[in-house]
Structure formats: C-alpha cells, structure tokens
Amino acid sequence: MTAASDFTSWLDGGRTVSDGPAWLADWRARAAQRARVLGVPGRKDESWRYTSLSALLEQDFRPAAGPALPAASALAPALITGFEPHRLVFVNGDFVAALSTSGALPEGVRLGSLRERLATDPGALEGRLGRVAGAQAPLFSTLNAAGFQDGAALLIDPGVALEQPIELLHLSLGDTGAILAQPRHCIVLGEGARATLIERYLGLDGAGVCTNAVIEVTLGQGAELRHERLQDEGAASFHLSTLHLDQAPGSRYRGVNIGLGARWARTELHCGCAGRGAECDLQGLYLAGDGQLMDYHLDVIHSVPECTSRENFKGILYGRGRAVFDGRVLVARDAQKSDAAMSNRNLMLSEQAEIDTKPQLEILADDVKCSHGTTVGQIEPEMLFYPRARGIAEPLARRMLCLGFAGEIIEALSHEALREQVTEQVGARLEQASG
Amino acid sequence: MLSVKGLRAKVGDEEILKGLDLTVRPGEVHAIMGPNGSGKSTFAHVLSGRDGYEVTDGAASLDGVDLLALSPEERAQQGLFLAFQYPVELPGVNNTYFLKAALNSIRKARGEEELDAVSFLRLIREKLKILHLDDSLLKRAVNVGFSGGEKKRNEIFQMALLEPKLAILDETDSGLDIDALRIVAEGVNALRSPERSVILVTHYQRLLDYIEPDVVHVLYKGRIIRTGGKELALELEERGYGWIIDEEHAA
Predict the structure, then answer these.
(1) What pLDDT does B199 receive?
(2) Which of A7, B3, B102, B126 has its C-alpha lying 20 to 30 A from A349's C-alpha?
C-alpha cells in the first residue's frame, strides 16, 4: 500500500451532511478549504513534535459507503451492568436509532441525532455548531467539520438538572474495510443546567477503524457538566478526539479521560475559561503497551480573572508503549487571580517504554497561583517488597501497585459501575502485559 | 522450627552477618538485642528475602524448608512474617483488598480454600479488636496517612490475620509511646501459642517488660555472642553492652 501524502481523501465521497441550511453548507465548505490549506502538520509544528502521522497516512481510511447495520446483539458486550444511562449508539460514526435508548427525558432536554436536528430544527444549532471550535480549529477538528456524518445534539434549557447520565456509545466495527468514522457532538447547557455525559469508544473486533471525533461543549453561566470519556478501541484502530470547551462565568466542568485502546490515539482538549470564576478540572489516565501510542494535548486558556483549572494526568507505560503529554496552560494578561495546577505522572514498567512529557505554563498576568509538576518513575523496590512479604506473588503485587497509582483518576468517575469496569479493564491490560 | 547455621551475608562489599547461628523451637519467643549496626535488621531482612543482601554462606530453614531458596512471597506462604520497622505506604491500594489478597495467597499456598467476602469480613473484624483498631482502617489505603503507632499496630494486625508460624518483629517498639507499646504487646501476647514462634528484634529492654521472652541473644558484629534467659535483658538494661563486648574481645 502506498502512503497518501495528505488527508484530502477524507474529504472525498462518503455521506457527509450535505443538505440543510446555507450557514451549514458554508461553514463546511470553508472547513474543507481550510483543511486543504493546512496540509499535513510536520515535526516542526510544535503540537506534533513527538507524534508522527506517517502510520495514519499509510492507511487508506475512507468514509463508509453506507451505515453499518449491526444486529442488536452487537451491543451486548458493550453494556455495563448496573449502568443505565440515556444512551445514543453510534456505529462507525453513524447514529443507530434501533440500538439507542434515550428513554424519557425531562422537559427542557433535547437529545438526539445531530443530523436529524439539523434537518428538522436547524435554528437550534445555528450559531452553536462550530462556534466553540472556531474558524481556526486544528487540522483534525477541521477535517471533522468538513466531513462529519452525524453525532449527538444535546441541548439543555437553563435551570434544568438531568440526574440520569447520558451516554454516547461509539462502536467501531471494521469488518467492512478501513473505515473512517467522524462523529461530531454539539453539547449546550443553559444557565444553571446540570448533566453528566459519558462518551465511550469501543472496538468490538480486531479490524482497523479510524475515528476522528469532535465534541463542542458550551456551558452557560453557573452550569455544571461532568464529562467522562472512555476509549477502548481495538488494537488495530486509530483514534482522534478533540474537545472544544467554552465556559461562561461560574460554570464547572469536570472531565475524566481514560485511554486504554487503539494502536495510535490522540486526544486534544481545548478549554477556554472565558467567564469569571469558571472551574475546569481535567483528569486523565492512559495505558500504553506494545505497539501503542497515546498522545494528549491540553490547551487551557484563562482569559478572564478568577478562573480555576486543574490538569491531572497519569500514565502507565509497559512493553514498548509510547505516550506524549503536551499540556499548556495560558494565563492572559488580564486574568488576575487565576489558579492553575498541572501534573503529569508516569509509571514506567519497562525499559523500552517511552514518554515525552512537556507541561508548560505561559503566564502573562502577575497575580496568579500556578504550578506544574512532572514525574517519570518506576515502582519503588520497597513498595514491591512489602506486599510480597505478605505472601502476594510479584505479578499481582505489581498490578496492585499500578492499580493504586491509577486509582486516583478512576475514583474521579461519576458512577460505581464505571469505576469497576475501568478498574477491571486496566487490571486485565496489566495482567496481559506481565503475562 | 527455625534453624539458622553459619549465616553470612553482605551488603555491597561489606559483610554484615558473619556466621550467625540460631535455633528457635515452636512456641518460643526469642529476643535479639544488640548495639546499633550489629546486624539485627539485616538478619530480619535476609530471612524475609529482601533484595540488596547477598547470602555468601550458611543455611536457614523453617520446618525443614530451605528459606534461602525461596522468593519473599514463598517464604510468607511457608509461614514467615516480618513486621516492618518502617511499614511501607501503598498509595491507592485499599487495605481490605490488600489483606484479602495476602490472606488468600497464603491460604491457596497451604492448599486451603480462598475465603469468601462474608467470612473474610467476619475474620477481619475479630482481629481488628485484638489491636484496638477501628474498622475505618479497612477503607483506607495501606499505611497511607497512618500515624506511627497505627502503622505498627497495623503490622501486628496483619500478623494476627495471616497467622504465621514464625513472626519476626523488627524494632516494632521504636517510635511507640507507652500506650501504643502496650497495645502492640498485648496483640503479640494474644497470638502466642505452642505452634507459633516469635523473634523480637529490639534495641531496648522496654518491649520485653510487656512481651516476656524465653531466650535473649546479643548480636554483635554479625554474630550472636551471648545467649541467656530474660534476666540477660535486664542485665543489659542496667550495664549496657560494653561488658559483654569486652568479655568477647578478651575471649
């Protein structure tokens, strides 16, 4: 297979949303044009310094000719006992109504397919879709704007609190070739609204799918969102996901990003604290083993005073696993009393594993409280000896310590069933790694 | 029970144990005393299988099983228990989970069935009482945020739970106030039985006021230079180690 020289093939064919209002067509045409102009970022591009796109370019991912129609049984392995959300299911980026169970939603909550919303009620999305990403979005977000097939539209009216979580469950099924899946989600919480949103990305078979997902989140004044993203794609898959977050004054965003699967995964979190007193809490846990790359980019911008942000990412690397953590917090000149703390800690279980970590604070204001810290370490011999002296075999002792290290992030998940599920998945990967 | 013969061990190039002999019979409590740097903790660590020590000569066996050929976990499964001088904090590792994994590893090695959650909790509550420990301890991470006294009590609590044949208490009395010392000693005394032996490694006689030893040894420069009854400890308390060392040099 010859490598492609750029991603323009992603713009051709497929079933992009072509109908709809003029603003939508315009926006998408501009995105396509910009994607062509952007070309392929190279190592000179700061945010791609440690991550090569050549493996992705070697693959010939194309949008699927038509939606996959999996049997209802395809869903079974993806379900978590004890976790019953309002669920929208996407298969290779297409919304599958037959598998979705959005259930009875409270008044003031509109949840459904983005494509459908655009067809029936485009006014609800005008000025919202694409707004947070902006005209200068990075390449893969821009490619998604030009080529997204569908996604979720979640609009919550001011003052409405949604207790039951919403799940956007993405299944990658690669049995029909090298498929490109591009869902785009548009989430808008009105003033004082509250919700919990879970995004899961699962590969249910071994074949390669490339997911390029974008989620735009707008939080109104005092709104609160818990947003948890669990990536467990198949071993041959590529995964790109970009969050664009915009926070009004006093709003709270609590995000947890768990990255376990895919051979090559890049997550970009673009967060803007543009309202006074906004709080943004980003946590992450990633595992990378043989043949895997986990790449995280955080871009947190404090543009007004009195915002708080926390960035706490932990990685466990084993075998020949690789990870990149490129975290940037920018505090603008006027953003006095900003409070930011960034931390990236990595546990290396093998000598062949590799981490490039680069936390950066750019502080232009003078009255702020900002800190960052990075560690790259191994399991302390002392800590390993203690459980062994209690009769616990070395592999289990190691796993126990790794799960202890990961536990801080897993504990941040909102639901016990999710915490158990992730603990089990992390444990299984570590067991595989040591066996 | 425990038989140690001519044990020699090095840390780096320095020989710390220089031909140590010790026999502990079932049910006996032995105290190993000695000045700083005599090799007391090294002996405890070498028996438990900690890395960083090289055994160059001699033998150590527990009920006929060659300890030196086993990994630390296998030694624990054979019934050896080391109460740490400095118990290690394991951030994020839940205490209940840890204890259950330890107990079931040992039970499995003995050919016993693993305990289910209910019987395990019942057992654990019973053992907590012996050490006057609160069951909130079970929800916490292993040793994390524990006070010095809690850490030492937690060691003896683990010993109560794991029911070893031979327990080695490495300076368990260090850093304890008198109340904590009493609780720890009561815990150890409650666990004394004709089948279980204990080695108390200690610098001071104080602990022996609460746990009465059958035999007292003085370790000096990597060898046991004097063995006696509990009155030897009292004599050491009164006269220090100097006189024994002088006699040793004279001999």
Answers:
(1) 97
(2) B102
